[in-house]
Amino acid sequence: MSDAKPRILIVDDDTDLLELLTMRLTAAGYKVDAVPSAEAALNYLDVSRPQLVISDMQMSGMDGMALFEQIHRSLPTLPVIILTAHGTIPDAVTAVQRGVFGYLAKPFDSKTLLANISQALKFVPGAVSQKELSQAPWRKNIITQSAVMEDLLTRAGLVAEGDASVLIYGESGVGKELFAHAIHDASKRSDHPFVAINCAAIPEQLLESELFGHVKGAFTGAVRDHKGLFQLAEGGTLFLDEIGDMPVLLQVKLLRVLQERQVRPVGSAQSIPVDVRIISATHRDLKTEIAAGTFREDLYYRLDVVSLTIPVLAQRREDIPLLVNYFLSTFSEKYQKNINGFSPEAMETLVAASWPGNVRQLMNVVERCVALSTAPLISPVLVYDAMHREEEQLVSFEDARRSFERDYLVRVLKITGGNVTQAARLAKRNRTEFYKLLQRYQLDPSVFKQAQV
């Protein structure tokens, strides 16, 4: 437990009460910041994160409940206590049902308020300062000063204390695996393995063996027993990245493992008990996938006990300078270059960019700038060139799929010497469908026949 004083934000348009509360809470050992309106409170929360908010209900402009709704939407783990001179039991019940931690009617007893504050702070991990939170070893690889990200990290710290399954949502490149690893490092399982696998990167037949293992002779090429990732992660955490891309038949087997807490290697008649925490991640909307029949609803509820959604980089632009300087230090050391930083204009360009590839794309751009830099200060021209080349490489999903399909069709036609019947059979498509694919990409099978002559 840290000795740091918890920080409390007080919001009230009554300056006399604001001053009185500040004096009482400071005397009780808390750090106190005070603002005269809900709008000012939201501005405060844009740049700082207290451990508790105490707000008056009736204020000019936005009232206390509207402020709570705004806070709860973006910082759901931040407790809020509301003070009101017009309190009723139904109002209090409604407020608590909506998520308000405490609801006190004026005039209130100081001991009651302090008791409520003490109770609220029990739900804040350690009630430590922002600086201490940012220096916690388990989150050392997550670079941020974003209030939304800090709230996510608070939730990650809370969920790490138990064994609940966690489902992390986020676009490619936002850092889903970093969050999963942070939860593992903050948990009681941190001394045991953290094992990660990308479910979209491995063919279905191999994925089953990778997850559950196989015994010697289970299939052609199985020359020895092979431990699966569930066994390798024993006592620790198994991270299933891109779980939304897992084939449906394998989802059934995964569900059985989660229910029974034991795995059966491919080709084995014996099941093996496993003690593993599951953290999964996806860029897909799994509820949409469930409606489409491509993801099992029962598995979804097993995985999504607690969910975290990581914002895209464009929604946390205040983190870009921090990340840029972190990557700059890393790559300057890697390439053995003495680079002092980015010019103000270059940094402005980086902060204003759209970053469709998120943090991973930003890292690539910084590395390219460092690798190509011949001066101690990176210029806007070098940044622009690095970003332009990155955008050229980062094609859309549809473009990538079209490129893959065309290359695949060309390879199959080469293998079969332009024989459409054989090519369709090899691709496991009927002849009519295969002809349509050839027409879509304007591929002439006769050209491949001539090439065989």
UniProtKB/TrEMBL annotation:
Pfam families: AAA_lid_14, Response_reg, Sigma54_activat. Gene3D superfamilies: 1.10.8.60, 3.40.50.2300, Homeodomain-like, P-loop containing nucleotide triphosphate hydrolases. Residues 7-121 form the Response regulatory domain. The modification 4-aspartylphosphate is found at D56. GO terms for biological process: phosphorelay signal transduction system; regulation of DNA-templated transcription. Residues 142-371 form the Sigma-54 factor interaction domain. Keywords: ATP-binding, DNA-binding, Nucleotide-binding, Phosphoprotein, Transcription, Transcription regulation, Two-component regulatory system. One of its GO terms (molecular function) is DNA binding. InterPro entries: AAA+_ATPase (IPR003593), AAA_lid_NorR (IPR058031), CheY-like_superfamily (IPR011006), Homeodomain-like_sf (IPR009057), P-loop_NTPase (IPR027417), Sig_transdc_resp-reg_receiver (IPR001789), Sigma_54_int (IPR002078), Sigma_54_int_dom_ATP-bd_1 (IPR025662). This is Two component, sigma54 specific, transcriptional regulator, Fis family. It comes from Nitrosospira multiformis (strain ATCC 25196 / NCIMB 11849 / C 71). The lineage of its organism: Bacteria, Pseudomonadati, Pseudomonadota, Betaproteobacteria, Nitrosomonadales.
